[in-house]
Amino acid sequence: MLLGGAAQPATHSAAIHRHFSRNDRETGRYQYVPFEVTDGAESLTIAYRYSGDAAGVSTIDLGLFEPGSLDLGTASFRGYSGGAQRSITVGRTTSSPGYRAGPLPPGTWHVLLGLYKVAADGVDVDIDVVESREKQPNAEAAAALSPAHRKADASRSASVNGLRWYAGALHVHTNHSDGTLAPAAVAAAARDAGLDFVAITDHNNTTWTREPMPASPLAIVGEELTTPAGHASVWGLPRTAWIDFRVAPDDRDAAAGINALAAGARRAGALVALNHPAADCAGCAWRQVIPDALDAVEIWNGETGPQEEAIALWNRLLRSGRRVTAVGASDWHRPPAPLGAAAVRVRSNGLTEPLILGAIRDGRVVVMRDASTPAPAVTARCGPRTATIGDTLRCTRGEPVAIDVTMRGLEQAQAALVVDGTRLVSKTIGGGATFSTPAADGHLRVDVFDRDGTVVAITNAIHVTTR
Fold this sequence. Notes:
The protein has helices at 22-27, 139-144, 147-155, 183-192, 254-267, 308-319, 353-361, and strands spanning 2-3, 11-20, 30-37, 43-50, 59-65, 77-82, 87-91, 107-117, 123-132, 164-172, 197-200, 218-227, 230-235, 271-275, 296-301, 325-329, 343-348, 365-368, 377-382, 385-388, 392-395, 400-406, 414-419, 422-428, 433-438, 442-449, 455-459, 462-466. It is mostly beta strands and 467 residues long.
């Protein structure tokens, strides 16, 4: 329907109906519904609804592509909101959270429908598209030039405080995916939690970067790649960049696709981490190939303590010779959940994005149950040589390796020596605990337990090589 007149800008609308069966979900997890956009459009409003939504028997995710290729890695991607929003607007100058603002080229666009869950008798999806020619305010451009936004850009490279342990959250969501708070409010919550840095990892988009942010804490551009068979974080993307996520494990080239996505993240300067690889929610556990370009594994997700299956995966990777860093995260979406449980402590030469990410890549990380408990200090010695968390210690095969552990404020805690993934012996830390083990090629770490047996900290590896 076309409407016109001096008092009302022209609009164009379309109503689209689709039915999908469970077989459709198996043969095409992502469905692309075309619609036309006319020349001169200033904004598009897309609303959708589907049967079984209220009962939870169907779950359909939403995304959007402008005219162009739909192939993996396409530049035509305009955004993704999953199941968080039932109506979104994409405009020349402003857009809903999760969607990229910019010119609206005429031609065939596609609504992306992710068939996350389909009822036994199928799902009916109705999509309403309204195109408007009314000019939008240039709010996002103004935000990009705001002093707060410029401070956030500067904070990505300005050095702070020198070598020490920095507390951080590596898996946090805003209202640009399924979180409830705006990015600046998330930053304030992170600062209140005592965090020095926060990686915002919204599902399949990085559009939070268009909003003004405070200079502190350091905000790292991330994305949670939400594939149909597992989630992964990338940290350190350029602003507005994104990494594709549309790889299902039964795709013909699934392994190549996952490796291509991870390699693309690396080329963009980002780190790649598997999130909650053994989670029990549908599609959350990692069931894809382990990518060649992998930097980290999330072994502790949320308040409930480390996940043993995730630790086992990390140990297998280390034993295979891959130097993969263990991390912990709150996977935070909303209060009152604590944003800093779990968290990481990163030993870095300064509080900048390159230094923090470099330290994570090098394994200079302790996984902590919270953001406030001091990290344990661990040093390994053989002869005159010493190493600490993330380092390599070179020894003569069989010579004694001494491992010293101290921890301020938790002297009554127990430290356990773990060699090649096997816990060998525990001691009370007190004023300092020392372990000894013969040197052999492999890796060692220390786990720390409180007096009630709860895990306080898991260090990353000290790698041992012998001659």
